[in-house]
Task: inverse folding
């Protein structure tokens, strides 16, 4: 079944006769358009892509199966003209601004408007073979960048420089950019789960956490590694080993039929049993694809069941304020029997001197 057919199946379930898509990754998934600025309008019979002058030629090349409509800057005006008959119209309520919702209401005065934010992301959660191959490439680019950056790290360097070197290697290898703002966090900053690279210099006696990823042909990768600079004390080794054990147990628990909650609990228990439960305050993982954060997740609330073809991160951490922290993250592909670990970068504690 094509993506558009699966989409119409979902529309049928929701009993809507049209759906408006403005989120770039959803548009790309359904149409193949990589230009970003387009609106899709899907009905039970037709599929339209609305874009302006700047993208018309690109859209014609990339999106042969859609009717392409040239608009001005305001896509919603043209949308109202083609969508006049629609009775129940779905839209991405998590993405449409208040202003644009007003335009939708004016454009479809007769229709019932329904916020259905997860319709396309639900379809995107199970990846097809081509998507999995692209994701493997995105992961490999990040793995290789990690191997390369390890050769260049020097005491006294700024976290920002390390982030830049990672990006440099990934872009040289074909990435169009980083998949999010990289986290390079050393010393006490490694206790900040989202400590983006700063001008802090790295010193001996510190953890250095690097969380980064590439965008390759639209698909994201996400990896975290923590290394130690200089000679670790016993507590550094202990915390690292607990996180690594939790990460391995989490991976071993990933299997079709398990909920995100069940997998999270397996890894979390290891950290709790070691006495560090209060220092692991985030979920175990998230799906990855055209967007860096997709559903389903691995966390204490996720009821969704894993299915073969989902690609998800496993990333436990321990963050001790004013001391430091460790996170280790791999991307895995859910298979028929369990999972296939996509990330190949080594994860035994690496000591840099
Ligand atoms: Mn992640």
Result:
């Amino acid at each position: 079944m094509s993506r558009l057919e699966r989409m119409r199946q979902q529309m049928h379930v929701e009993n809507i006769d049209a759906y408006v898509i403005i989120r770039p990754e959803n548009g790309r998934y359904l149409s193949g358009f990589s230009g970003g600025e387009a609106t899709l309008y899907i009905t039970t019979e037709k599929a339209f892509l609305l874009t302006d002058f700047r993208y018309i030629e690109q859209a014609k090349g990339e999106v042969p199966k859609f009717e392409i409509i040239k608009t001005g800057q305001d896509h919603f005006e043209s949308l109202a003209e083609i969508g006049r008959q629609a009775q129940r119209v779905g839209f991405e309520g998590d993405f449409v601004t208040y202003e644009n919702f007003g335009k939708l209401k004016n454009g479809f005065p007769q229709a019932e408007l329904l916020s259905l934010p997860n319709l396309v992301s639900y379809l995107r959660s199970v990846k097809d073979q081509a998507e999995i191959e692209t994701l493997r490439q995105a992961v490999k680019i990040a793995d290789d960048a990690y191997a390369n950056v390890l050769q260049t790290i020097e005491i006294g360097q700024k976290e920002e420089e390390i982030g830049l070197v990672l990006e440099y290697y990934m872009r040289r290898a074909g990435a169009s950019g980083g998949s999010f703002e990289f986290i390079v966090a050393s010393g006490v900053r490694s206790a900040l789960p989202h400590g983006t690279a700063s001008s802090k210099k790295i010193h001996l006696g510190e953890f250095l956490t690097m969380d980064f990823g590439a965008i390759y042909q639209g698909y994201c990768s996400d990896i975290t590694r923590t290394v130690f600079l200089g000679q670790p004390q016993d507590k550094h080794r202990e915390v690292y080993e607990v996180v690594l054990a939790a990460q391995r147990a989490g991976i071993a628990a990933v299997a079709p039929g398990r909920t995100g909650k069940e997998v999270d609990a397996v890894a979390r228990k290891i950290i709790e049993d070691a006495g560090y439960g209060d220092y692991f305050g985030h979920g175990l993982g998230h799906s990855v694809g055209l967007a860096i954060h997709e559903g389903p997740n691995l966390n204490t609330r996720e009821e969704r069941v894993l299915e073969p073809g989902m690609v998800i991160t496993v990333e436990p951490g321990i963050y001790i304020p004013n001391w430091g922290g460790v996170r280790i993250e791999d991307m895995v592909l859910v298979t028929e029997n369990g999972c296939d670990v996509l990330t190949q970068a080594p994860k035994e504690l690496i000591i840099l001197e």
Notes: The mean pLDDT is 96. The domain at 3-124 is CATH 3.40.350.10 (Creatine Amidinohydrolase; Chain A, domain 1).
